[in-house]
Amino acid sequence: MADTSPQLPDSAPKPIPPGHLSSKHALRRKDRIHHLRRSARATTTQWRRTVIYWIGAVLVGIIAVLFARMGDGAADLRSRIIAWHPWAMLFVAPAGLAFITWMTRTLFKGAQGSGIPQTIATLHIDNYTVVDRVLSLKISVGKILLTCLGLICGASIGREGPSVQVGASVMHGFSRLLGQSNIAAKRSMILAGGAAGMAAAFNTPLAGIVFAIEELSHSFEQRTSGRTLTVVVVSGVTAIALLGNYTYFGHADVDIPVGTAWIAVLTCGILGGLAGGTFAALVIKASRGLPGPVGRFAGQRPIAFAAACGLVLAIIGLISKGTTYGTGYAQARAIFAGTEHYPASFFLLKYLAMLVSYCSGIPGGMFAPSLAIGAAIGGWIEQFLPHTTPGAVVLLGTVAYFCGVAQSPLTATIIVMEMCDNQQVTLALLATSFLAFGVSRMVCPRPLYTSLADRFMEANERATRPKPVAPEPPVAQVKDAEKAS
């Protein structure tokens, strides 16, 4: 009997067995579960990393605040020593600088210097053994302790530069804790830590971000990193929570309207750029070695040379009646407030004290003393410009000299603007800063911190370069020499 059941065409879909259908759905469910687990693991890892970044940023802020308190305590102790007997600094300064130099050559090797050039250098060094050494916890501790000791001894230094290196060290330590192997990620953490250290030290979060963009970073990827912004903001908020929302100069209700008042912009921009550029050029030259017998003495007997620098600092301090010691924060604030009027000699003596402090080789930054010198320049200029608000001229002098030294016009403008809590003078500050930048470049073509970072990298390259091995003499020559002997 013929088969009368309907025949399906070859192209028609064939029925799927029920068991096969259920197994396919099971596989899909299993794949979905695996995908959800992977996503959950990735999200958990990402959140864990984010929390660790925040913890690092908070720690940078706390350390910066403690550093600031220690710096203030060091300044108070120095004031008590001077009040007891001003001539005591003739012993304290030489002995202290000699001890600091000995410590940087024994217990805390590599702690000397500002901290900003070292941080810039680590963003360009591929050998992470060197980076780990430069940004080690030991160096950070030494940087803080020896900078505070330098302030007690009357050195004209600041804590902002060391805060940058300490912040970079903290975030680099957390990067190692996370086991990051990507070089770009490591450098991003160093950059974020350095910027956070700057922001927390000055209590200027916006300036910290701009500093990371303009001074520390040299690549577009690092400039646009959201991680850097987050770390800077969290660190800045931590500092504000601990110290309060203070400003370096206090609130400044001053304005510089466009017109004759802008003569101050031209005057401060030119003079500040010349003075700052000259200082930067002198420091770059000194970093290559001092000339003549002084240079030979510094190279052969660095501890004795540091003691001699301390003696010079003490003599300058006695001449200036103690105003050139330390960061210069109190003098800058008094000049801006109009409560104190310092002669032009204060600017010259503070300028010389900064140079001597750098040449001694002790740890310490140049930001705070530069602000004091700039304020002194503005305070001296204001007496010749009666048609301009005195406090405004002080701000212009501050931004001009600071930019002349660092050659970072945006950073200088934002720092001074945030330190005086005044946005009305932003346009005048920008104009002064860029004018000083141009004048400084004519005197010192290469930026100060970039030049010092290059010098630091060259020194490290020479130190890590393997020494050439002398070729062994041929066997015949050895035998002849043995016969001759």
TrEMBL record:
Pfam families recorded: Voltage_CLC (PF00654)
Subcellular localization: Membrane
Membrane spanning residue stretches: 51-70, 82-102, 229-249, 261-283, 303-320, 355-381, 393-417, 423-444
InterPro entries registered for this protein in UniProt: Cl-channel_core, ClC, ClC-type_chloride_channel
Bilayer topology: Multi-pass membrane protein
CDD domains on file: EriC_like (cd01034)
Domain of life: Bacteria
Region ranges (Disordered): 1-23, 462-485
Keywords tagged on the record: Chloride, Chloride channel, Ion channel, Ion transport, Membrane, Transmembrane, Transmembrane helix, Transport
Main location, first listed in the record: membrane
Sections of the chain in a coiled coil: none
Record PANTHER family: CHLORIDE CHANNEL PROTEIN CLC-E
Name assigned to this protein: Chloride channel protein
Species lineage: Bacteria, Pseudomonadati, Pseudomonadota, Alphaproteobacteria, Acetobacterales
